[in-house]
Write a structure and sequence with these properties.
Number of strands: 9
CATH architecture of the largest domain: 3-Layer(aba) Sandwich
Structural class: alpha/beta
Pfam families: Methyltransf_11, TPR_1, TPR_2, TPR_8
Number of helices: 19
CATH superfamily of the largest domain: Vaccinia Virus protein VP39
Protein name: Methyltransferase type 11 domain-containing protein
Distance between the termini: 86 Å
GO molecular function: S-adenosylmethionine-dependent methyltransferase activity
CATH topology of the largest domain: Rossmann fold
InterPro entries: Methyltransf_11, SAM-dependent_MTases_sf, TMTC_O-mannosyl-trnsfr, TPR-like_helical_dom_sf, TPR_2, TPR_rpt
Keywords: Repeat, TPR repeat
Strand order of the largest sheet: 3-2-1-4-5-9-8
Shape: globular
């Protein structure tokens, strides 16, 4: 048992730890919390605060350990259960995170944020039906929950319930008129044809799914478009044996870069999503990586490339005249632009209910000629699976004139 003097010392240390925490010094606070727990190992609130500090330091597994100890000491603490769920989800321990959220809901059945995060956990672990059920319950309790409405709309769209999704996106826009993904998807499901997808929509889409992007695309959907593009490249008679400088447009996590290793002396990449760029950097195949808009970037540099790659990039572009012209301005004479599109039966280009743009080959030919490119090859390829059906597409190879 601590003496009165020791108790005062502990209280002072706790106040200093909380002060550091509130000032943003999470590392200093965590160190003091740990020191305190060495002297008072049964102090549940200190474990809780330690968990918060570690979470803010992105030490998610260590945070989960602290929150787990907090709930062992007080199983009625809703906040500790909730934050345990958050930390476990960050560790991709979805089933354990779900259990923590359910424990929190047993104590507070109508807590909107716990319900929302439980639904997100189900969504991110591909338990779509359960996720929709919880989102629907959340919206019954809190009809103006924008993130819940938007995520439910996304899942309805994923399941092919387009009209229900459209109405939900419309509700999001009533509450938040500038919401990028709701605006884009409401337009897509309403037959609109804007000149491009909102930059914020594309960035947020890929930031959100960067952690399991390759798992979902490659393993779950059988995605191999970069390899199909490489096969078209290898069959193309007009290709060079080697390229000096290549730019992977919308490089994502680096799947196209991996497929085209060895064809160039230097490979650079650009993407709107900072999280995607971080994953691409981890592959160690790019000499330079840039976060930003492709057109703005190319207008800001003096570098000229002799190979451009764009796998599943034009599907977020819409009208292509400006894009093709900027690429032409930064292409060396005889340079190659290899890219994929989704196929449009008639018309030039159209935003599809999927939220992606599709193109008729004749439109590609016309824009190419207008901007100094020549269509040197085109092959039909299936691009991706959607609701167990392959999406028709094309791979084009354009040569820069001059």
């Amino acid at each position: 048992m601590n003496t009165p003097s020791e108790a005062l010392d502990l209280e002072d240390m706790y106040r200093r730890a909380v002060g550091l925490h509130q000032a943003g010094d999470c590392a200093g606070a965590a160190s003091l919390y740990e020191h305190l727990l060495g002297m008072v190992p049964e102090a549940g609130p200190v474990y809780y605060n330690l968990g918060l500090a570690r979470y803010e330091l992105e030490l998610y597994r260590e945070a989960a350990e602290a929150f787990h100890r907090a709930v062992e000491l007080n199983r009625e603490d809703v906040d500790s259960w909730y934050n345990l769920g958050l930390a476990l989800k960050q560790c991709h321990e979805f089933s354990q995170a779900e259990e923590a959220y359910l424990q929190a809901l047993a104590l507070h059945p109508e807590d909107a944020e716990v319900l929302y995060n439980l639904a997100c956990c189900y969504k991110d672990s591909d338990q779509v039906s359960r996720a929709m059920e919880v989102y629907e319950h959340l919206i019954e309790l809190k009809p103006d929950h924008v993130s819940g409405l938007n995520n439910l709309a996304y899942l309805k769209h994923l399941r092919g319930h387009f009209e229900e999704a459209r109405k939900l996106y419309g509700r999001v826009l009533e509450l938040r008129p500038g919401h990028p993904s709701a605006r884009h998807m409401f337009g897509a499901l309403s037959g609109d044809n804007p000149r491009s997808a909102p930059r914020e929509y594309v960035r947020d889409l890929f930031d959100q799914y960067s952690d399991n992007f390759e798992q979902h695309l490659v393993l779950d959907l059988g995605y191999d478009l970069p390899l199909k593009m490489r096969a078209v490249f290898d069959r193309f008679d007009g290709r060079r044996s080697h390229y000096e400088l290549a730019l992977d447009l919308g490089c994502g996590t680096g799947l196209a870069g991996m497929a085209f290793q060895g064809v160039c002396s230097r490979l650079d990449g650009i993407d709107l999503s900072e999280k995607m760029i971080e994953m691409a950097r981890g592959k160690g195949i790019y000499q330079h990586l840039h976060v930003g808009d492709i057109v703005e970037y190319l207008r800001s540099v003096d570098v000229c490339y002799d190979l451009f790659l764009a796998a599943d990039v034009l599907i977020y572009m819409g009208a292509l005249e400006e894009f093709f012209q900027v690429l032409a301005d930064r292409a060396r004479p005889g340079g190659l632009f290899l890219f994929s599109t989704e196929y449009l039966e008639k018309g030039g280009w159209q935003l599809q209910p999927s939220g992606r743009y599709a193109y008729h080959p004749e439109y590609i030919r016309e824009v190419s000629e207008q901007t100094g490119w020549t269509v040197a090859c085109r092959e039909e390829v299936p691009t991706r699976k959607e609701r167990d059906q392959w999406i028709r597409g094309n791979v084009f190879g354009l040569i820069r004139e001059g």
